[in-house]
Amino acid sequence: MTLITFLSYIFLLYGLSNLVVYSNGIFHIFEKWRLIAHNIGEQFGELFTCMMCFSTWVGLALSLINNIFLPSVPFTAFNMILGAVAPWWFVMVLDMGFASAVVWLLHQLEEMMERTGNVVYEDEMINQQT
User: Are 39 and 55 in contact (CB under 8 A)?
Assistant: First the structure.
């Protein structure tokens, strides 16, 4: 059960980060968020366009949710590993680092596969056929 929870957590991190950073979303909501963030400030806008940056804060948010609302059901990486051993604030910092590292590694793996040509997306196949 723990391995399934751990893998689900990793895919949740990557999915949420990828959705906000690259997707337009329904009614272009994510695109509007990114535009508003860039209007607030350049560094704040970078938060919504960088996989490593955004996933760090997703890790913090999920760690907060786990510590405040669901403390009896550990689902973030370091809540599962350290649980009641370490202080909550230390677990949150470790969850932020873990989220950033895992999402960045998965993102780099995807980028590498795209560069080597091992991944062909459906819209690229349509363009190649015409």
Answer: no
As given in the structure block, the two tokens for residue 35 are 């535009």
Q: Is 23 helix (H, G, I), strand (E, B) or coil?
A: coil
Query: For 72-106, how does the pLDDT look when each residue is reduced to its tens digit (9 = 90+)?
Result: 888 898 988 887 788 888 999 999 999 999 999 99
Distance from first CA to last CA of the chain, Å, rounded?
47
- For the chain, what are the domain ranges? 2-119
DSSP string covering 48-103: TT-HHHHHHHHHHHHHHHHHHT-TTS--SHHHHHTTTSS-HHHHHHHHHHHHHHHH
* Separation CA 109–CA 121 (nearest Å): 15
C-alpha to C-alpha distance for 119 and 124, rounded to whole angstroms: 10
Asked if residue 5 lies in contact with residue 15, where contact means CB atoms within 8 angstroms, the answer is: no
